């Protein structure tokens, strides 16, 4: 429940103006939250100038007072940081610390979700990464064989991937560590699932940027996603809830490559109306 401390409240009405669902009213010069339409976005906590709003549904230790030195970042620095990030396919033989993994997930936890659903779930694979790799490569091998045995105008587009999946599976069976074209010998995989793929996608983008601040590199693995997405055996291994969709797979580790500059991109496709 959302609550207002009447002793602190100064009746400024800022929480009322910022409440999208109109769930707050002013009674005798004090704000009162009806808790009828409220979907717990907690904007009232953030906007109150005297810290009069609280809730018993979340951990209020999450709340931090704004401080310019700790919260601000220049536009150009942020844009350059985004431009400099790269998809990493070379990783060092070095474990990713648990506190860094938790910090990456923290970035996702505070990413906005539609209707404040907060529907994200995370599966961290590190101790059982070889077993997970085997499950994925077995599925890709199966998919690759099917594609190559059923070539048509559609499957021909992914023929080269199908051939690669068979090779990757064989490399794994031969224990060819230097030819790991799935996880590239990274020590950690984080899988993000949610009821909304938009929510998971937005969160995953923030996770990648946060990982880069920790000197880590990330690869969004489409191959792993393709194998795991609708496979019951793999979903059971990952313990993904039935009502949630597996949306992204982040391969994470310490990069074994150094980049010296950003790269060019296509011009933005913009329509001004």
Question: Can you walk me through this structure?
Answer:
This protein has 273 residues and is an alpha+beta fold. Helix content is 38%, strand content 14%. It has 3 domains: 2-62, Alpha-Beta Plaits, CATH 3.30.70.20; 77-126 and 183-253, NADH Oxidase (3-Layer(aba) Sandwich); 131-179. The chain has helices at 14-18, 43-47, 68-71, 75-84, 98-109, 129-149, 159-173, 197-213, 222-228, 232-238, and strands at 2-4, 24-27, 30-33, 53-55, 121-125, 188-194, 217-220, 245-253. It has a 4-stranded antiparallel β-sheet with strand order 5-6-8-7, with helices on both faces. The longest helix has 21 residues, at 129-149. The protein is elongated, with a radius of gyration of 23 Å.
* Binned strand content: 5-15%
| Helical coverage, percent range | 25-40%
CATH architecture label name of the largest domain: 3-Layer(aba) Sandwich
Order of helices and strands: EHEEHEHHHEHHEHEHHE
The number of helical runs is 10
Keywords: Oxidoreductase
InterPro entries: 4Fe4S_Fe-S-bd, Nitroreductase, Nitroreductase-like
GO molecular function, one term: oxidoreductase activity
Family: Belongs to the nitroreductase family.
């Amino acid at each position: 429940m959302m609550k207002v401390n009447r002793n602190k409240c100064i009746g400024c009405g800022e929480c009322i103006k910022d409440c999208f669902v109109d769930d707050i009213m002013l009674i005798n010069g004090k704000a009162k939250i009806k808790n009828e339409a409220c979907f717990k976005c907690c904007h009232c906590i953030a906007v109150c100038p005297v810290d009069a709003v609280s809730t018993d549904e979340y951990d209020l230790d999450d709340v931090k007072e704004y401080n310019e030195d700790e919260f601000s970042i220049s536009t150009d620095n942020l844009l350059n940081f985004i431009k400099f990030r790269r998809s990493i396919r070379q990783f060092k033989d070095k474990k990713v610390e648990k506190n860094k993994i938790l910090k990456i997930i923290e970035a996702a936890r505070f990413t906005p979700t539609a209707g404040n659903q907060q529907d994200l779930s995370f599966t961290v694979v590190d101790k059982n990464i070889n077993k997970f790799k085997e499950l994925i490569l077995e599925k890709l091998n199966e998919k690759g064989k099917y594609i190559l045995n059923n070539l048509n105008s559609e499957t021909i587009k992914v023929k080269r991937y199908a051939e690669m999946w068979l090779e990757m599976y064989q490399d794994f069976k031969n224990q060819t560590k230097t030819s790991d074209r799935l996880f590239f010998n990274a020590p950690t995989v984080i899988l993000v699932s949610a009821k909304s793929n938009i929510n998971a996608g937005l969160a995953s983008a923030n996770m990648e940027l946060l990982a880069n601040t920790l000197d880590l590199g990330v690869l969004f693995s489409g191959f792993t996603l393709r194998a795991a997405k609708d496979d019951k055996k793999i979903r059971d291994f990952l313990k993904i809830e039935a009502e949630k969709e597996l949306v992204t797979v982040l391969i994470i580790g310490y990069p074994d490559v150094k980049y010296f500059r950003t790269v060019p991109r296509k011009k933005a496709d913009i329509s001004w109306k």
